[in-house]
Amino acid sequence: MAVPEVKYFSVVIPFNHERTKILLGRKKRGLGEGLWNGFGGKPDTGETMGQCTRRELEEKCGIRAEKVTCVGILYMGDINGPDFHIPVYTTAEYSGQIAETEEMEPKWFDASTEALPYDQMHQEAKLWWPTMLSGKLFIARFLFEGEKVLNHNIQIVDVKALDQHIDEINQLLLGS
Ligand SMILES: Nc1[nH]c(=O)nc2c1ncn2[C@H]1C[C@H](O)[C@@H](COP(=O)(O)OP(=O)(O)OP(=O)(O)O)O1
Fold first, then answer.
1. What residue ranges carry the coiled-coil annotation (predicted)?
2. pLDDT for position 176
3. N or C: which end of the chain has fewer CB within 10 A?
4. Are 123 and 149 in contact (CB under 8 A)?
């Protein structure tokens, strides 16, 4: 059986210092155009996920994260297409001015499940954002057929398990 192609992306969600609000960006072009999401993109060659996360945050909304924390991983498979593996980070420690960029229009939302614009987010968002907002660490697996989620599973994990997954992803990215 052929091994499916895997595409890696990062996503980072900035919180305000009180952790009552989150910053989302509406994608102005490319993958996920028109949808609200955290800020992220593909790792450059030789970059770890943590490095990618910081660079993408600055490129997409102008702020520099002092610290990012991995809170979960999205493993997405499609019966017809490539797999997407997307570690999800949060940050509440950053500097610089939030700015609209060519790719993203930023906006603060209340950090509550009810306040999120799920009808203008990736369709599986409503399945994992409540877990992320609850502060639990998670590994979420989705199987898609095109736009349709065929099945999904969200596993609550501890920091050690999550670190192991991130180490594996970094090793694959760095080719070691
Ligand atoms: N189904 C999905 N669910 C989700 O939550 N985030 C997704 C997703 N599919 C893609 N993303 C995220 C990952 C990443 O943060 C963003 C897409 O990133 P981009 O296309 O902007 O990547 P790049 O910045 O590498 O691309 P270029 O700037 O075109 O090189 O959308």
1. none
2. 62
3. N
4. yes
CA dist 93 and 164 (Å) reads: 24
Looking at the domain assignment, is residue 112 inside a domain? yes
Please state whether the predicted TM-score (pTM) of the whole model is above 0.80: yes
Is residue 37 within 6 Å of ligand 1 at its C-beta?
yes
Number of structural domains the chain divides into? 1
Report which residue type is found at 33.
E
Does residue 1 form part of some domain?
Answer: no
Atom of ligand 1 nearest to the CA of 59: 24
Minimal-distance CA residue to ligand 1 atom 29:
30
Predicted pLDDT of residue 167: 97
Helices (H), 37-158: 49-61, 125-133
Atom of ligand 1 nearest to the CA of 122: 3
Indicate whether residue 40 lines ligand 1 (CB < 6 A). yes
Q: What value of ipTM does the predicted structure carry?
A: 0.92
* Any ligand 1 atom below 6 A from CB of 116: no
How many angstroms does the Cα of residue 68 sit away from the middle of ligand 1?
18
